[in-house]
Amino acid sequence: MGKTFSEKILGRKAGLEVRAGEVVTVSPDYILSHDNTAAIIKEFEKLDISNVACPEKLVIILDHVVPASAEKYAQNHKSIREFVEEQGIPHFYDVNNGICHQVFSEEGFARPGGLILGADSHTTSYGAFGAFSAGIGRSEVASIWATNEIWLRVPETIKIELKGILQPGVFPKDVILKIIGREGADRATYMAVEFGGEAAKNFSMSSRLTLANMAAEMGAKNGYFQADDVTLSWFEGKETENFEIFVSDDDAGFSDILPYDLSSVVPQIACPHTVDNVRPVKEVEGLVFHQGLIGTCTNGRLDDLKQAAAVLKDKRVHPKVRVLVVPASQNIYLEAVKEGVMETLAAAGCLILNPGCGPCLGAHQGILAPGERALSTANRNFRGRMGSRESEIYLASPATVAASAIEGKITDPRKYL
Amino acid sequence: MAEKTIRGKIWMLTGTDGNLIEDIDTDQIYHNAFLHITDISQMGAYALGNLEGWKDFSRKASAGDFVVAGRNFGAGSSRQQAVDCFLALGISLILAPSFGAIYFRNAVNSGFPVIKCPALKDFVASQQLKTGDILYINLKTGEARNEIRDTLFSVEPMSRVQEEIYDAGGLFLYGKSGNRGK
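ok -> structure tokens follow
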């Protein structure tokens, strides 16, 4: 029997022949952390070790509450900056860069064949580049800082076989919502999700990031696209050292192969309060909402902002709705300004916020009051995530959020094509 | 070496329908608003603070108690506060049919027993488990006994790596113990 992507990549890193279910000890290429670095530092200090083993492997990006909205956040940021200085950590990105997953990708840390671990559940994102990439916890990160190694269980793999072509007005976000809705929030717990099939090659890097990011919402350990020409062209003109392309064998032992025909997907929406509570947008059309969010590590890239701008061009956001636009990184912000996307969105009445996680995790910048409903391009709609536990969050594509913002109620975006 | 058999009074995390609540996510276990807290001892007060019907859990629970929950407990974020808040309260074990993947790792690496019991729903349906019951669980063999109802059932024993980390008293000590990768 052949091997899966994850068996190959973890086997290479461990220097062993491995199969799903085995536990290996490996040394990651990079370890990501964000504002929670402050808490990791506390854990690290308990280990009674003065220096981080490999400071060049740490990538620290402040994004969760940027700039600090209260003294407690300011204190955490300050302690992180001091630690970075003391330990001589070269890869530090302060509050003016953007969301960790976007910045990490743009800076070229995510590469085919890489092993990346991060103290954030959406670290699955870098599977978009053909890396093995998983979220871990704070103690684990502290321990890796100290020892430069960690145990991992080699995951079993579910293969999503994508075929067909998306219809106009339907986007990669709709595809991943459809998959999560059908398969369930714990379908892939402890497992890898391979996004493959003949249509995988039609997914841009940005789309791949959206899907790999949300693999976490199926409970996946990691989610990935295998590196191909799309991946390689993304790296044109960039550093391509340490590349290694791993591909699952045809006769690899997949736990399941699940076919998805893209041509039959219609705009989807995840309803409160779980990400797998997914229905076609049509079924909830007409529901009023109060706050729209276009951004996040799931859908805050240039193509996402363009989708929204295409719908909102020469239109106005409904007077009873406020729309927050949060570009995923400073680079995206700049590009969107240059291309006139920000002008379109601002002219439509959207409120443009600085790059970062924004209101997605309910810590600042647009907290929901009891009884309010948000329509967001984010990846999670857990009860109370964006503020009051008496508020509701719906998740959809940027186009759906933009179309709905015009009408002041949830709207299928295809009427604005 | 840590205790292989532990005993505790259980809290059944049930909803208004009497069933165990499924998909209790990390936002319900430990809300975002308190993520700035870095001192574990201060986290206990917020345990389950965003779970309907269980906001007063931190005041009701005692050190040594067990928590019993529905499928996919701890789905979502990687925030370790969602594990640490129970450690802060002295909760000694969590039993559920399944756990969120990162949640499970966080608990394992903290040396905190998280135990899977796929058939849990059946025991609840047949009323073999109720809040206040006392359970004995052998973490190595998976044998479990409800002392109050004098019934026996089985849970999944710890995996080897989970047991080794538990014995070592946490991930870092496990790394130093020389046990690793044996």
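Residues 5-177 of chain B form a domain with the Aconitase; domain 4 fold (CATH 3.20.19.10).
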